[in-house]
Amino acid sequence: MLDKLKDFSSRFFVTGEPMIYGADVAILLTLAGIIFVLTYLKKWKWLWREWLTTVDHKKIGIMYMLSSLLMLFRGGIDALLMRIQLAFPQWHFLDSNHYNEIFTTHGTIMILFMAMPLMFAFFNIVVPLQIGARDVAYPFLNAVSFWLFFFGAMLFNLSFVIGGSPDAGWLSYPPLSGMQFSPGPGQDFYIWGIQISGIGSLASGINFIMTILKMRAPGMKLMHMPLFTWSVLASCIIIIFAFPVLTVTLALLFIDRFFDGHLFTMTGGGNPMMYINLIWMWGHPEVYIVVLPAFGIFSEIVATFSQKKIFGYKSMVFSMMIISILSYFTWVHHFFTMGAGANVNVFFAITTMAIGIPTGVKVFNWLFTMFRGRIQMTQPMLWTIAFIPCFVVGGATGVMLSAAPADYQYHNSYFLVAHFHQVLIGGVVFGFFAGLYYWWPKMFGFKLNDRLGKWAFWTWNIGFYVCFMPQYALGFMGMTRRIYTYDFDMGWGPLNVISTVGAFFMGIGFIFQAWQILHGIKYGERDVTGDPWNGRTLEWSIPSPPPHYNFAVIPTVTGQDAWWAIKEERKKKKAKETAAFSAIHMPKNSGIPFIMAVFWFIAGFGLTFHWVWMAILGLTGVGACLLARSFQYNSDYYIPVDEIRHTEDSVGRVG
Q1: Is the N-terminal amide bond of 185 cis, ω within 30° of 0?
Q2: 53, 68, 140, 527 - which has most CB atoms within 10 Å?
Q3: Rounded to whole angstroms, how far apart are CA atoms 292 and 298?
Q4: Do residues 168 and 275 make contact, with C-beta atoms less than 8 angstroms apart?
Q5: Are 336 and 408 in contact (CB under 8 A)?
């Protein structure tokens, strides 16, 4: 019996690596610390009441944001470990299997568990406020979406210490991801972690489309919406068509692994190219899913800190919608070398080049907005200006890759790695950092320190260029992706050392940002006006942080830049209007989303280890939660007028 238990433990837990043991200790100490603090401060009821059961879009957005920053830390550590190995391959810091695991988890975490939730954080925090709504269209579904993401991410990250991490690359191409070459549970952790969180992402896409189309303030026509809201709409349109493809693709891969389906096995009558087509039908639109909201963020920041209306509003809207359509017609450029044929390659080369046109329109519009504007070099504006040259380089290298004959040389080289990071860090990460600095006072009621922010900005930017510019040269020199060791005589060593130094500079930038947050909690400049940037859109018309109900009185919109127009009108009237309040209808908190996600986690864990009994137990629990929700009739309440008046009076908002 004892021998069986030891054998099970050796297969169930990851052993043999000092870093793994260190992670085990860190996880246990962190959990013990959290439990101790919550118990000592008697905060368990507060945690359940205020956060675990909340359906408030603002709190859900903050939880998305915090989860994303934790995933940025985990994915960043993975990146540094890879860079150490590549800078000093003779040290054998990582063996080939461990390198492949870290390579796989880094890409998956950064795209699906860092960029996506940070994007959804902005969706939740900003969109209802920008359109003058009190909540999203489906608050309960919004909570379900977050908890599915969270427990999907936890399931994926659990593979680091239990069962073993996936090691077939961040897109898990077969046959490497099949049972023959990935027999352990790592690949199933990948499938079910992404499946569970992907269901939440799809639900969020549906939710925010309905919120934008049906819950805008009176008078806010579609062409009156802020550009960030437009970018969210464009992104969600891509989500609802792209994520079902991912769901089906991973389900087919699981059928191959669990039922021996041979859908993607050449010797069994399948075709791995079918998987590659399907995964990139999701994978390339995914790039635009995360970059479009960054474009929306830049549009808001440029207009605010140039103190001008955005140049070319209609062309900005049309370019975003064109990108959302063209994004479905570019996926084959990821495998020009796979022998699809000249006609196919030409079509996708043209569509890939064409999608650069609406992107270029945006850059020129931002520059024209800044032209002769009264530019304020705030932290959000610094990140915005840094983005422009970075993204121009990324776009130019993307056009190089879009030419099929040239791609035969660049394909699978470090040139492609540099381009990919140039676009996703310079475009997405810089954009989301700009958004964090811009909306931080609205979320938390205080600004982040400027001096620390500039240290973070410069270390991030210098580190970025030092890290990725050498990788273009390495690509031309023949260094391929997914390589973990090489001979120093090949001439790649010095550039890899430089690239690693740059990666550590970016890590220092992240430390400065963490320091900023901790410093700001105690010493940050408090926002007592609700409008610290002299903003143009409706989120700046309410206190910081916003009250639970957002707007005591829903505003009436007459055109673009609604809050700017209201401020100009008030200057003319030179009188403060007295608000007439009425009771506000709001949704009640619910514990069902959290409990349902726990059952999804149980089902995913069971399917990962092929324990059918546990999977059935988890799915039964999910069904029971859905049934319980269907009988939940008392799911809303009204905030009385006296409470609204008291809240508004406490922040000086009652005339």
Answers
A1: no
A2: 68
A3: 10
A4: no
A5: yes
Q: By C-alpha distance, which of 438, 424, 415 is closest to 387?
A: 424
In whole angstroms, give the CA distance from residue 251 to residue 272. 15
Work out the pLDDT band at 280, boundaries 50, 70, 90.
very high
**448: which DSSP letter?**
P
- Rounded to the nearest 10 degrees, what angle do helices 450-476 and 493-523 cross at? 160
Q: What are phi and psi of 587, to 5 degrees?
A: -80, 150
Per residue in 221-258, pLDDT tens?
A: 999 999 999 999 999 999 999 999 999 999 999 999 99
Q: Is residue 48 part of a domain?
A: yes
Q: What angle do CA 517, 518, 521 make, to 5 degrees?
A: 85
- CA dihedral (357, 361, 363, 366) in degrees, to 10, reads -170
pLDDT at 313 over 60: yes
Distance from C-alpha of 41 to C-alpha of 63, rounded to nearest angstrom: 21
Closest listed residue to residue 553, CA positions, set 538, 564, 565 = 538
What is the span of the domain harbouring residue 35? 24-53
CA distance 179 to 134: 49
Give the position of tokens 């101790």. Answer: 36
Residue type, 7: D
What are the structure tokens assigned to 580, written together?
């007439």
Instruction: Report if residue 372 sits inside a domain.
Output: no
Whether 407 maps to a domain, the answer reads no
CA–CA separation, 46 vs 651, rounded Å? Answer: 24
Burial class (CB in 10 A: 0-12, 13-18, 19+), 631: exposed
The CA-based dihedral angle spanning residues 328, 330, 332, 333, taken in that order and rounded to the nearest 10 degrees: -160
Partnered with residue 638 across adjacent β-strands are 585
Residue 585 pairs with which residues in a beta bridge?
638
Which among 463, 447, 572, 577 has a CA at the least distance from the CA of 509?
463
Nearest of 252, 255, 322 to residue 282 by alpha carbon: 252
pLDDT in tens, 109-154: 999 999 999 999 999 999 999 999 999 999 999 999 999 999 999 9
Is 639 in contact with 586 (CB distance < 8 Å)?
yes
Q: Which of 466, 453, 438, 439 is nearest to 509 (CA)?
A: 453
pLDDT at 653 over 70: no
* Residue carrying structure tokens 């064409």: 354
Q: Report how far apart, in Å, the C-alpha atoms of 30 and of each of 19, 36, 40, 69, 154 are.
A: 16, 10, 15, 16, 15
String of DSSP letters for 36-47: HHHHHTT-HHHH
Residue-wise pLDDT tens digits, 452-486: 999 999 999 999 999 999 999 999 999 999 899 99
CA gap 128, 569 in Å, rounded: 23
My answer on whether omega of the bond before 175 falls inside 30° of 0, hence cis, is yes
Q: How many domains does the chain have?
A: 1
> What is the CA angle 189-335-415, rounded to 5?
90
Amino acid identity for residue 119 in this structure: M
Conformation bin of residue 460: beta by default, left when phi > 0, alpha when psi is -120 to 50? alpha
- How far, in Å, CA of 528 to CA of 545, rounded? 10
Residue 488 reports pLDDT greater than 60: yes
Q: Is residue 631 a part of any domain in this protein?
A: no
**Parallel/antiparallel/unpaired status of strands 636-639 and 584-587:** antiparallel
**Residue 62 in 3-state DSSP?**
helix
- Within 10 angstroms of residue 287's Cβ, the number of other Cβ atoms is 19
Q: What is the residue-averaged pLDDT of the chain?
A: 93
Q: Distance of alpha carbon 192 from its chain centroid, rounded?
A: 18
Q: In angstroms, rounded to a whole number, what is the distance separating the alpha carbons of residues 85 and 497?
A: 10
Kindly tell me if the per-residue pLDDT of 404 is higher than 80.
Answer: yes
Burial 225-234 (b: 16+ CB within 10 A, else e): bbbbbbbbbb
Confidence of residue 68 (pLDDT cuts 50, 70, 90): very high
